[in-house]
């Protein structure tokens, strides 16, 4: 069990935001699994992201590595809010929190999204009777700001450029100040240059405020997103994914470059998790020391999940394994 601000994740195992958490059926299967302690949605934007034929995913020959060139979900935020309300308000033997992954290209859109999310959270408080684990039903819905998608043309991940990130953090911090029950996290990319980790942690500390003691608006960081700038050639791809015919493309995904997930990026994900765990634990601000890490990246078996916890992750999540094995992924990871 892990408690991240107002959110309890029992067991501390969940999916990370991805293609296989896009539609209602996928989210319901994740919610109904006895092996998940929470569910994360695919990243939603205010109006939905325009997908095209360049957006794709392949599994490499080792079967547990992915390269993907997807952006965000084509479904808008309103659709996810509707699905989340249905899932959370349907009687269930075991309630669990849903982490709504969101992003916006500008702070105004982000502000709009937060108004809609907060309105749903207020409604949850009215329609879902409190229980022992969730005395405030609005805490069943948390937020993860995706700051790290490597696949958006001409929009570098803001978490690699803090001046672009700060306006979004400021909007989230305002909402956290107004509503202490809201749990907010950030989805971060891998940091091959670990000195950048301290910069990010110092940046988060700028938002600590006083609320009967110091409190930081950000309760968790999810490390890591895929490793951008990666290339696989078609002959490196699982043969089930190679199209037959005369004009087989040389590159595994249409734009050539994409984000690497799964076992081939596990070491850098582990390194980033360890670097964040250490930087958070060593910080002078007690509110920053409370920020938890959700470990993601190459968690494809129990030993990898154990390594994530040993590197400092309070909870562990996966995407590639879910894509490969379906909902069985969480049984595979359960000790
Ligand atoms: C096909 C695909 C789609 C993804 N979409 C998202 C997304 O919408 N939002 C997000 O934060 N991360 C997204 N990710 C990244 C995953 O959440 C995860 O951080 C990354 O794949 C590393 O974990 P893994 O090794 O378990 O795959 C996606 C990954 C894949 C493979």
Automatic annotation (TrEMBL):
Transmembrane region(s): none
Pfam families membership: DHO_dh
Pathway participation: Pyrimidine metabolism; UMP biosynthesis via de novo pathway
GO cellular component terms given for this protein: cytoplasm
Species in which this protein is naturally found: Postia placenta MAD-698-R-SB12
Keywords: Flavoprotein, FMN, Oxidoreductase, Pyrimidine biosynthesis
GO molecular function: dihydroorotate dehydrogenase activity
Residue ranges of every copy of the Dihydroorotate dehydrogenase catalytic domain listed in the record: 3-331
InterPro entries: Aldolase_TIM, DHO_dehydrogenase, Dihydro_DH_chainA_dom2, Dihydroorotate_DH_cat
Gene Ontology biological process terms, A to Z: 'de novo' pyrimidine nucleobase biosynthetic process; pyrimidine nucleotide biosynthetic process
Cofactors: FMN
Keyword Oxidoreductase tagged: yes
Protein's name in the database: Dihydroorotate dehydrogenase catalytic domain-containing protein
């Amino acid at each position: 069990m892990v408690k991240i601000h107002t959110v309890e994740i029992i067991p501390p195992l969940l999916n990370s935001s991805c293609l296989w958490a896009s539609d209602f059926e996928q989210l319901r299967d994740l919610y109904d699994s006895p092996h998940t302690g929470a569910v994360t949605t695919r990243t939603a934007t205010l109006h939905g992201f325009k997908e095209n034929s360049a957006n794709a995913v392949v599994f490499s020959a080792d079967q547990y590595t992915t390269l993907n060139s997807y952006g965000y979900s084509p479904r808008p935020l309103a659709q996810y809010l509707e699905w989340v309300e249905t899932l959370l308000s349907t009687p269930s033997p075991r309630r669990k929190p849903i982490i709504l992954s969101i992003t916006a290209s500008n702070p105004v859109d982000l502000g709009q999204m937060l108004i809609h999310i907060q309105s749903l959270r207020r409604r949850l408080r009215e329609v879902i009777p409190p229980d022992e684990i969730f005395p405030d039903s609005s805490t069943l819905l948390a937020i993860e700001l995706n700051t790290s998608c490597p696949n958006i043309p001409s929009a570098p991940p803001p978490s690699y450029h803090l001046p672009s990130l700060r306006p979004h953090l400021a909007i989230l911090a305002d909402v956290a100040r107004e509503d202490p029950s809201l749990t907010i996290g950030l989805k971060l990319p891998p940091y091959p240059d670990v000195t950048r980790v301290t910069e990010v942690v110092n940046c988060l500390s700028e938002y600590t405020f006083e609320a009967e003691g110091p409190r930081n608006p950000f309760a968790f960081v999810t490390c890591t997103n895929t490793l951008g700038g990666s290339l696989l050639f078609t002959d490196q791809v699982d043969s089930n994914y190679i199209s037959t015919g005369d004009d087989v493309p040389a590159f595994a995904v249409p734009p050539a470059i994409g984000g690497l997930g799964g076992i081939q990026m596990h070491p850098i994900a582990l390194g980033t998790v360890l670097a964040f765990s250490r930087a958070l634990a060593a910080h002078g601000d007690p509110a920053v020391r409370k920020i938890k890490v959700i470990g993601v990246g190459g968690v494809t078996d129990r030993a990898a999940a154990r390594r994530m916890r040993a590197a400092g992750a309070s909870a562990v999540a996966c995407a590639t394994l879910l894509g490969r094995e379906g909902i069985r992924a969480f049984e595979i990871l359960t000790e």
